[in-house]
Amino acid sequence: MGIEMQKKTSVSNGGREHGPEMFNHQDYSKNFDDDGREERTGTLLTASAHIITAVIGSGVLSLAWAIAQLGWIAGPVCLIAFSLITWFTSILLAECYRSPDPITGKRNYTYTDAVRANLGGVKIQLCGIAQYANLVGVTIGYTITVSISMAAVQRSNCFHKFGHGDHCYVSTYYYTVIFAVIQIFLCQIPNFHKLSWLSIVAAVMSFAYSSIGIGLSIAKVAEPHHHARTTLTGVTVGVDVSGAEKVWRTFQALGNIAFAYAFSNVLVEIQDTLKSSPPENKVMKKASTIGVATTTLFYVLCGLAGYAAFGNDAPGNFLTGFGFYEPFWLVDFANICVTAHLVGAYQVFVQPLFAFVEKWCSNKWPERGYITTDHMINLPCCGQYPFNWFRLVWRTSYVMATALLAMIFPFFNEFVGFIGALSFYPLTVYFPIEMYIARARITRYSATWIWLKVLSWGCLVVSLVAMAGSLQGLALSVKSYKPFKIQQ
Asked: Could you tell me one molecular function GO term of this UniProt entry (predicted)?
């Protein structure tokens, strides 16, 4: 063992190289795992916290609208159903972290690694396409959300100053540009996605604006003259919507709920932070149960309280739709929290995409110096900065492209539904089920194989109708769009 360890001279620890003297058996076992990587310190508590942080996000803002389309019965049932499906597939995914044995097998550090180890073939490329399409969609959705939230702050102050009857039209274009400029700057910071405080800020902000939304909803329901119209089946055909609109909105609501639970693509990475003892799969199953149960309770409270407050007229985003006018400063604070959360969350989602494209280009054109060469520049108060022409042009172009698409399609509710429908089935349902079937060698056409396939096909149908509803909503919104009015 000692001789073998002495040959490993390039194991990294925080960017430092370790010489042979570092690797005696006792020190190695204390500081490193059996694969030469730094020893993991994650626990059930930290994994549960990571899952809760990953789940609770901007998707909570549209749940009141989703419940309004489905009603008091189907709304909560769909929320619970999505949570149970997400929990179940998360349990299956936990079994695929090590291969071939779930306890002693080789670690899979990422979701794609797990697909490669358990499925292989063309499904690796399909997984990559699904993941990166989701990342692109989320960054566009976040740009839309932030621009609407920033504009809502200005609009809230306008209502407070001139009265609730004033139109207070506000264009989101100006705020989209501001957000893009901020992201262009942040994209050039090396390893921004590794800053330890980022997850803490995201967690605090998401809990803050979600809690404020719940609190404002409860306060509105408690008002003496509150008369929001709610029904068991949601928006009423012939009163609120036509029969066709009811169907399309129901489909779109499913996409909105799916977006709220679309977090499975980071579960393998979260599991990779856990200590090896007790076994990671057992700890991750408990963490998934705690995380999904906690967020589902939070979502049910948020969706039902929002529906009770607004009834069938619930806005697509209950913090920018102005069912709440006062206290205006609290509405402003909630939207500032949304903005602060998504400024950092944008980087979390975009950095893996940046890394993939830059690595691919470096391997494709290794002789191109402007792609592979970093120029060290001394910046005042910041030390040396590794400047790269390709990184500057590519990352800036990407942020500008997402901002342009957000300007063309500034429709929060419809876009959220589309992203949810696009990413939920492949990443949350299909790959976890297929990997589990392959790893457990479940016999074709056995009872277990059949019901797993039925679950998978059923979720595919739900995702397809949710995507259709969201696309139809996007088409209608584009047709009726007024560029100088904030989209609700």
From this structure: symporter activity
* Cβ contact 149:319 at 8 Å: yes
Mean pLDDT in the chain?
82
Higher pLDDT, 28 or 91: 91
Between vectors from CA 461 to CA 457 and to CA 465, what angle results, nearest 5°?
A: 170
Give the number of residues written for the chain: 488
Comparing CA positions, the residue from 206, 178, 182 lying closest to residue 192 is 182
d(CA 377, CA 239): 64
Is the CB of residue 296 less than 8 Å from the CB of residue 80?
yes
Coil vs helix vs strand at 387? strand
Q: Is the pLDDT of residue 158 over 50?
A: yes
Query: Half-sphere exposure of residue 468, counting CA atoms within 13 Å on the CB side?
Result: 12
- What is the model's pLDDT at position 195? 59
Looking at residues 123-130, what average pLDDT do you find? 90
387: which 2 tokens?
Answer: 């400047």
Residue 94 contacts residue 269 (beta carbons within 8 Å): no
**Structure-token pair, residue 137:** 């969609």
Q: Measure CA 415 to chain center.
A: 13
**Cα separation, 438 vs 122, whole angstroms:** 15
Q: Write out the two tokens for 237.
A: 């055909």
Average pLDDT over residues 195-223: 81
Per-residue pLDDT, averaged over 11-32, amounts to 44
Assigned token pair, 251? 């489909």
DSSP symbol at 427: I
Sequence-distant (≥ 6) Cβ neighbours of residue 107 within 8 angstroms: 35, 97, 98, 272
| DSSP conformation class of 40 | P
d(CA 313, CA 316): 9
The SS3 call for residue 346 is helix
Closest alpha carbon to 148 in 407, 398, 326, 341: 407
Task: Determine the topology of domain 44-479 in CATH.
Answer: Amino acid/polyamine transporter I (1.20.1740)
Residue 319's SS3 state is coil
Instruction: Please identify which residue in the block is written with the tokens 């329901």.
Output: 221
C-beta separation of 267 from 93 below 8 A: yes
When mean pLDDT is compared across 297-306, 357-366, 438-447, 471-480, the lowest value belongs to 471-480
Burial of residue 37, with CB atoms counted within 10 A of its CB: 0-12 exposed, 13-18 middle, 19 or more buried? middle
pLDDT tens-digit series, residues 380-420? 776 777 778 888 899 999 999 999 998 888 888 788 888 88
CA-nearest of 41, 334, 33, 383 to 207 is 334
pLDDT value of position 268: 85
Residue 263 scores a pLDDT above 80 = no
The neighbour count for residue 435, using CB atoms within 10 Å, is 25
